[in-house]
Structures are given as C-alpha cells and as structure tokens.
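During data preparation, we tokenized the protein backbone, and the record follows.
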Amino acid sequence: MKVKWLINAVVMGCSGSVFANTGPIISGPDVSVVLDGFYQDGQRAFSNRDEGFGLGHTELGLTGSVDDKFRGVLTGIFESHHGSTEIELEEAFIETLALPAGLKIKAGRFLSEFGYLNSKHTHEDAFTERPGVYRALLGSHYFDDGIQVSALLPTEFYLAVSAEAFSGKKMDAGFDDPATVGVVAGKIETGSDIGDSNSWMLGLSVLRNGNGHMQFGEHAHDHSEHEHEHEHGGHDHSSHDHGEHNHGPAYTGRMLYGADLTWKWAPQGNYKYQNLRFTAEYLYLDDLYDERFSSLDGAPSSLSGFYGAFVYQFNPNWSVSSRYSQFDHMSNHDVHGHGDHAHGHFLDEQLKEIDFAIAWHSSHFGVVRAQVSQQDYLDKRDNIVSLQYIMTFGAHGAHAF
C-alpha cells in the first residue's frame, strides 16, 4: 500500500498543469529521484546496512511552491534490509517564504538542524555511511514531526539561529507516559570568508530529550514486538553487534550537545575544478540513566564521540576523502530489576573507525565511490570494503555549505 501511495503521489505531481474553476493555472510540483545502490563486504556497528548487494538511502521527492507565501516538500525513502524493501516518509513539511526580518517557519516532518551532517540528506556525504557517533546517537540522521523557527540575522558575517520542538517518538526510551513534546532543540551557527579562497563555519547545538532516560525492569516497555518499526528508540544495547538492524538511536539521554567546525578552500572561490573541505564534530550525551541505576557497577552518566574528515576534489571528476571517528560508550550486562532491587554491571566500550574513499563524479549528479574502512570494536578488528553509486535526476536544489 505504501508503494502504491507514493507512486500515485508522483504520478499526480507529474501529470502537468490543471485549471481551477477560477483563478490562475496551478502547476505540478518538481520531482526528484536519488538512486543509492551498494555492495558491502563486512558490517559496521550500529548500522542498518546489510552485507552484499543492497539498496541504500534511495529518495523520491516532491517539492513546489504552494503560493508566494509557502513551499512544500515530500520525501519518501526506500531501503533494503534482509531481502525486503522498507519505505519511510522522511520529510513532509511546509515552510514560509515571505516572513520579514530573515525569519522562517517550518512545520511537519523534517530533518533536525542539530549538528553539521544531520540536516543534510545522506546522499550529500563523501562516505558510504555516517560516522559511528552519528549512527549511535542520532540513528544516522534524526528527523521527526514538529515545528522549527529559524532566523538569518542581519550581520556583516553569517549568523543564524534556530529553535525546534518535536514529538520525540524516534527518541523515546520507552516511557509508559511519554511527553507530548518529547524533544526540543536549538542551534546557533556563524561563519565568514577569509580572502577569496577560504571560508569557515562554526556551529553549537543542544537537544533536550524529555523521554530520553534508558530504563530497565517493569517500568520499561517491552520493545520486542516493535523492533521493526522506524519509531523504535532507546533499548537494551548489550546485543548491539555489527550490522544490527535499528532505525533509531542506540543510546538516548536527557541532554545531547554538539559542536561542529567546517573549513572550505577553493581557488578564488570556484569549487568546480578543485576544492578541499575539512569537517569535525563532537557530540556529548549527558544524563544517561535514571538515578535508580546510577549506583550500579560501571554505570556512566555520559557518552561522547567525535569525527574528523577531509574531502579533496582535485579535478572536476575525481575526489578522495578520509575520516577518523571514535565513539566512547558502554554496554550493559545482566542489568535488571527496579528501584532498590536493580542490579547488574556495565562495561566500557570504544568504537574506532578509519575510512578512505575515492569517488568518480560523472557530473554533479552522478557519483561512483569505492571505500575501504577499518573498524575496531568489541576487541575485534574488521576490514570493510564498499562500492556505491549515487545517481540524481529530476529537479534538485543546491547542497548546503
């Protein structure tokens, strides 16, 4: 039913212009398709990708102006998991076009502005998958139902702020009576040019998850029957192994903080022929457990991780990229009970990854990528080889900074 629904939506959008009984012609929305296919030998921790051939983050999108005051976006996602195709509505929102003072309001389902990567579609990345800290704390990319207010401030340098409120269902740790507005988030980012060839941007983000404590025992939901759902949030993580299928974050806490820095270089600001980009992010998850479990052996109150990545496009058709990422976390062992009867222990874990990729760009819309990765996790070192293509056709807007 979901497949038929999305196809019908596209057909209606492509059917051309229609005349209303009165008034001007209403044109159909722009249609875009992003095809993401891959072959992968090996699996990553906290990843949704299977080994072998698979369908990655393939997108079908509709965008268009409602009138001179509103714009609408609809994005459906197709992915393959264990031989079946899963479909999810990633974006379905409206946003204002004509508010004064640089203000913009967005409402519906959309990607949070938290961090540098999260607000971007995954096909914009220079690697086959997002770094481990993103996969563990944001489910690779966090999107939800809610509202966002943002403003581009009238300064001589770039300065933007945003505030968001979400349902928080994708980050619900299993509360019996979750908050209606489960997540609130905010971000401030600034940047500027340095001469004609260099530019930089710095961002600071915060996210408060009202349903974000992990709970055990009789106070937690039984998630076993919901593991296949995309709304699935925090859960028992002792079984997180390479390639375990999970669409939500692996760990949730009360507060998530982020800092990101991006620097770009291109000769005289012309990115077409040559450019270099460096991006680094640090994420810190705090207030992780209920106070009832803080006395258990090894129970942490926070987790953290970071990554740093270089991407160098040395001519219009070829680019190379490298990335190091690390996520310091824990796994729980035999934690059960509740209140004063809770007992068990936790063990420190560390996920380290090194990625090297080379990509051939047939144009701005076509990429074929080969990547080699080394993952150190659970006292085991794995080498992962990936081949990927990303092909975009139809209307497609410019990528963000």
